[in-house]
Amino acid sequence: MANSITLLFLSLALCFLLPSTSLAQFSFGQQGFGQPLLSQRRLGYRSQCQLERLAALEPTRRVPSEAGFTEYFDQLNEQLQCAGVVAYRRTIQPRGLVLPYYSNAPKLVYIVQGRGISGTVIPGCPESFQSLRQGFEQQWEEESESQSQRFRDEHQKVQFFREGDVLAYPAGVANWVYNNGEVPIIAIAVADTSSNANQLDRQHRQFLLAGRERQSQEQIAQVEERFQQQKGNNLLSGFELELLAEALGVDKAVVRKIQNVNDNRGDIVRVEKGLQMLEPQRRAEQEAQEQEREEREETQERRGSSCERNGLEETYCTLKNRQNVANPTLADYYNPRAGRLTSLNVQKLPILRFIQLSAERGVLRRNAIQPPHWNINAHSIMYVVRGSGRLQVVGHRGRTVFDGELRQGQLLVIPQQHIVIKKAQSEQFEWISFKTNENAFVSHIVGKTSVLRGIPVEVLMNSYRVSREEARRLKFNRGNEIAIFSPRQEKEDRATA
Known about the structure:
single chain, alpha+beta, seven-stranded antiparallel sheet, elongated
């Protein structure tokens, strides 16, 4: 009897505790209450974020290929482990093709330099694009027909990208990239290994559908010790020759070629004569999207119920996965004497709802400042695109965890709710920040929409033990400036002129 009563009380206590635990995972968002502050996937890893000191990171491993190379930041670094992400930088030479692959984590890619073509292949989406060039037209005879017919290559969507674009790729979706420009493509990528979409583990895995990774003996030893998942041949090489030939409907000679056992070009290969394929045209792309939309609406009307829709087709297939954040006219905050900030969130690029990442592009002129601020609901992985700047990051209990220069090509993780201040040291300081929430929010200390601006003067007086006049200056001295401030000396010179 006593045991039964004890179990009853334990059950009641558990019922009361569970709602509190669930509510603790939620906070406010742009859509109102009930938005997840950090999705449940990250809660289990917060113990890894007790960082006493941050450091600027540079790539620690370089994987060469025939037409480029990939540089990896150490994914075992405690800063990246804290944020639950991995980062790498890829360089693709002109006429270089990144062979088709997919990975176990969603990612955002920022194009630092160059232009090219990207393609994704999503299961369930229609093959609504055709290669029309004469070189791809072939002739064949159907067994039941004596008349020859023209063959046109049908494939899924391909699109142009250029410097300043952010590309979003869901986990498990095959993609490829081709450099059709005259300069190397340089791209920085951040993959979210702690996403719900990744149900393997926190390691980043790239699954090659073609080619194989090329490495030196020293690099192979390092990979075997710490990155075993990133070496080896493409996926098709693991199947038995006869079984794969039967599955693909081709002879064994073809299977031997696609398994790439003796191919040492790496995963970025050179297309000697250029890629002879349909180059995406904006008008054709728009017409195809409109036709797909009309067909989809007609299909939905016939079905009469949203329960019968193919969920994947209704989401990924028609969503844009590219947005430029370097165009000054698209900036969210612009100060002609200080610089600009451009955010990319789920409102601007809806596919980010499935990626669960967002981005921010910043440009500061010399001596301009981005005043103290913190990320409310995300970690920030900051990569310097050009120039240099001084950063200070302050964490729990007012401890300085980073105070130094951040230069082009370096990366810094700024943990959630750590306060950071940035000042440009070069003529122009440019960066891209990847944030671990599709709708990241920032809170500023000073400025028009800041914390100090929202607090009554008398509260400031008593909080900081300052006079009324000093409190008023704290609150209003930056006037109507938001997010980025022009140099103080420049403001004083204009005031005395």
